[in-house]
Amino acid sequence: MSKLDKSPLNLQVQAGFFLWFCLLLALFAVPRAQAAVVEITAVFSPDPTNPNVNEFINTTPNSGLCLTFPSMCKPPLYSIRLGMEPTTQYAIPANPSSLRDSAMFKVPADTRTVQVTSPSGQTAEVAFSITAFSATIRTNPYVNTITSVNSGPFSAHDALWGQNWSYFAAAPCTLGAQMTALSYLDADFFWFTPVQQACGKLPKFEIPWLRLRNTSVAYRMTTPDPLSMESGTYVGSITYSIGPNGDFDFGDNLTTSVTEVTFNLSLDVQHTLKFQFPANYNRISLYPAGGWQQWLDRGRRPEALAASQAFNIWASTPLSVELQCEYTEASQCGIRNPAGHTVTVDTRITLPNGLRDASSQPVNRYLLTTTPTIFSPSHYVDNGAATLQFNVERDQVASMIADHSGSTYRGTITVIFDSELH
User: Which domain of life does the UniProt lineage start with (predicted)?
Assistant: First the structure.
C-alpha cells in the first residue's frame, strides 16, 4: 500500500473481526508423501449494505464431504479433500481389549494460537481448533460377509459394531449428522469432537482389513477484529503430527504414510479509506459570526474568526490525523500577515459516529496538532458526514485588530490522513 498523499484530496486507500469458522475439511496428499498441506483462505472487505458486520468471509473452495453431500454442510461448514487414509496393519480382533487396536481417532480439539503476519510485519493472533471428524469406513471382506447378516446394511453394521457409525457416535464424540450413505462395503460418519480424547468402536467380529477413507475434519478459526488490522494479506501456519500419540492419533493399528499436516492460513484484509471534499475545498476564509459588516456597523470587535469545511468519509481502518503547517505555533498552525505577525488557528475535527478517539469517545471538535492522533472505527463508516473547523480565538483577534488592522493574514494548513500506522 503506497503512502497516502499528504493533503486532503479525494483519495482511496486499500488497507485492511471476530470470526468463527467451523469448516469441514478433508485430509489430501500425494501418495507416499510424508506431509500434507491445507490452504485456508478468508477475506474481509467492508460491506456498505451491512456496515455493522465486520467479519471475514471464507473463500476456501469446497471439496470432499461438503462437495459430495452439500446438504450436510450449510455455512459456516465447509470442506477440503485431503485423502489421508489410515489403514490397519493387522486384523482387528473381535472384542479387542484396547481401543487402540480397533478403529479409532483422536484429533487436536484444543484451541491453539496461530500468529499471522502482514507484509509490513504487523502481527495478529488466530485461535484455531479441530471441532469434528468425518470419514468413510471400508472393510474387506464386506460387512455382511464378516457378520453373516444379509438383511440390510444397517443391520449388518449394527451387528458388527453394536451400533453403526453413521447414526450413533461413540462418547466423548457426538453425532454431527446422520449419514445415509451406508452399504455392505462401507459407511460414512460425521462426529463432533468436543474434547481431545479418543473416539471409536470395538467390533463384535474379527475384521481382517479396515480403512478410513475420505477423512475430514471441521475446524473453528477465531480471528481478531479486522477493523484493527491493516490492509494486506496476513499469513501463518500450524502443523499437526500424525501417528500413534500424535496430534492426529488413529491408535496403534491404523497407520498412514502422511506423518504431518500443515494448515496454511491466509487472511486478506481489504480496507476502505476514502474522502470526498466539495469543489474549491482547499481555500478557506475566516470570518466573524454573521460576517464583518455587522461588526463594523456596531463598532465592536469580533469575538472570534471561524470557518468550517464539510466532507464525507468512508473508513474501515484505523487512521491517524495530523497537521503540517506553513507557520507553526507550538504544536498548531498559524496564519501570518506581511509584517510577520502570526496568530494561532485552532484546527478541530468532527467525525461521524463509528469513529472514536483513543478513549473510545465520539470525535466532536477534537483539537488537531502536529502530533498524529489515531481514530479507530467501531464499525464500517460508509459515506459519513465530517467537518473541519478553523478558529482564531478572541485574544488573537484582539491583537490582529488593535495592532495590524487592515492587513491580510494567510497560511497553509495541511491536514494529513494516514492509514499506515507505525
Answer: Bacteria
Q: How long is the chain?
A: 422
- 110 backbone dihedrals φ, ψ, rounded to 5°: -70, 150
All structural domains of the chain with their residue ranges: 17-269, 273-418
* CA gap 215, 153 in Å, rounded: 21
Residue 352 is which amino acid?
A: P
Rounded Cα gap, residues 84 and 81, in angstroms: 9
Query: Tens digits of per-residue pLDDT, 231-270?
Result: 999 999 999 999 999 999 999 999 999 999 999 999 999 9
Cell representation of residue 243:
501417528
What pLDDT, in 10s, does the model give residues 96-105? Answer: 999 999 999 9
Q: Which helix (H) or strand (E) holds 227?
A: none
Q: How confident is the model at residue 86, as a pLDDT?
A: 98
Element (H, E) at 160: helix 153-161
Contacts of 382 (CB under 8 A, 6+ apart): 46, 48, 51, 314
Beta-strand relationship, 271-276 and 186-192: unpaired
- Residue with the bigger pLDDT between 56 and 8: it is 56
pTM above 0.85, yes or no: no
* Interatomic CA distance for residues 84 and 200, integer angstroms: 18
In 3D space, the residue among 271, 303, 276, 299 whose CA is nearest the CA of residue 287 turns out to be 303
Residue 280 binned pLDDT confidence (cut-offs 50, 70, 90): confident
Q: Which three cell numbers stand for residue 296?
A: 463594523
Residues 6+ apart with CB under 8 A from 298: none
Query: Among 1.10.1740, 1.10.287, 2.60.40, 2.40.30, what is the CATH number of 273-418?
Result: 2.60.40
How far is residue 268's CA from residue 226's CA, in Å, rounded to a whole number? 10
Half-sphere exposure of 105 (CA within 13 A, CB side): 32
